[in-house]
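re: that complex we talked abt at group meeting.

here r the seqs, copy pasted straight from the sheet so there may be weird spacing, ignore it
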Amino acid sequence: MTKNADPTHPCGKCAFYSDSVWQPAEPGSVSVLAAGFSRQELEVGQDLFEQDAENRAVYCVSRGLIGLRTHHSNGKSTLLRLAYPGEIVGFRSFLGSGRHQTEARALLPSRICTVVRRDANRIVHDNPSVLARLMDRCVAEIDRSHERIIATATTSNKQRLSALLLRLMGHFGEQDGDSFEMRLPLSRSDLADLIGVQPETMSRLVKRLQNDGNFSFSGRGVWITPGRLTEEILARRS
Amino acid sequence: MTKNADPTHPCGKCAFYSDSVWQPAEPGSVSVLAAGFSRQELEVGQDLFEQDAENRAVYCVSRGLIGLRTHHSNGKSTLLRLAYPGEIVGFRSFLGSGRHQTEARALLPSRICTVVRRDANRIVHDNPSVLARLMDRCVAEIDRSHERIIATATTSNKQRLSALLLRLMGHFGEQDGDSFEMRLPLSRSDLADLIGVQPETMSRLVKRLQNDGNFSFSGRGVWITPGRLTEEILARRS
DNA sequence: GCGCGTCATTGTCGATCGTCAATTTCTGCG
DNA sequence: CGCAGAAATTGACGATCGACAATGACGCGC
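got the structure back, here u go
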């Protein structure tokens, strides 16, 4: 086991985790946590996999934040999804036969629990419950996309940005007395992608949100909230 | 076998179909097409299942058009997805454990191939390839949602409406000399839902599209295209 | 410390959208 | 045939957005 690792759990919150799958490896083994599981640490900006690459494994975000981005043929790109701790990445191309349709890159220092494709196939074969969990995740992704489609059509950009910031704050914000603060791991363009607007519009949205008084942004990437929305954030902490 | 049914195929284009699954039933049996398969016909407006109902089966659209609609708590509703012939409906709540999150209603007279839940479980258990196909479908739904999210953010409403109409025309349009025509099975509100705008905006979009000369709408629900986009439509015919 | 490139902001403009409301058209039914 | 209700259209308005361009701030390497 790796030093300081939780002996009862290979990679923190992990949708792949199953009692029947995971047994503690013998002491001394470092990267292989259990049969089929390995762990890796990613620096900010490091790729987990590239777009169009063949699927080699299924990944679970143990710590940090992974951004899924698709590059279009015209040279532009869109940040499609954020994978928070506990979420699975790469299941789309694992379940469907194929290549990654997105690039996965660490937006924060991240710990990833990896199950290479062959092991994943074996695990899934031996443990139907793991497959069920994978499919649940797949279904959840559909639900999430549908919610996003509905939200795009029915709520204002300001509301959607507000919701996104609160979600991020729930995961990565640090409480400081009555308020929260965090380093925003996303550029303005990234934020713009996630709610479906142009970067310039995002700048203006940020300003308007700040004028409303619920958020305050200082410099690039760093921002603070006065206590108004504290309860909202705490409610998002699980 | 049912009279006039294609003996080589239980329900026309059907993603559930598999050589190893389907054997012709004995002559005389009407609704049961093969082990686990049955068929039903839906009139326009008839429900395949209701929102919040428990999943009882997986369905495949053999003919016609099914609309998936979610009702929100505020009394409004949104048409989320159109299921064209060959597509599977109900897989979300079948794979995930749960209830339907949408209502499924026939928008055209439709033929549905039904596999009740227990049979579907057995079929999936005996035929991993069928499960694989189901998961493929699930993954495809994710892809489609992602495309829609990207399209909403990057293309104009006019473009998206145009694309939607061409898709419908490819499925249901009837060629008339150099042009196509069809009875539009969707109300203006439905169209508005599908591209994420308000009904009033849809009215204006329709008018603008008509002024551009590629489409012409007559009365409610009926519309015709002059030959300009004929090739586009033919390309969509598979 | 300087320069360069990227990112962010700001300004301006026209186009489009959402909303409210009024009007017209359509459809089903008696 | 006429009526009533729903759907569709149209008008008007303010708010917002996307596009383009210019400016400003920041980070990074030399």
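couple things i noticed - Residues 187-189, 199-200, 202-204, 207, 220 of chain B lie near DNA strand D (CB under 10 Å from a C1'). Helices of chain B lie at 91-95, 117-126, 128-154, 157-172, 188-195, 199-212, 230-236.
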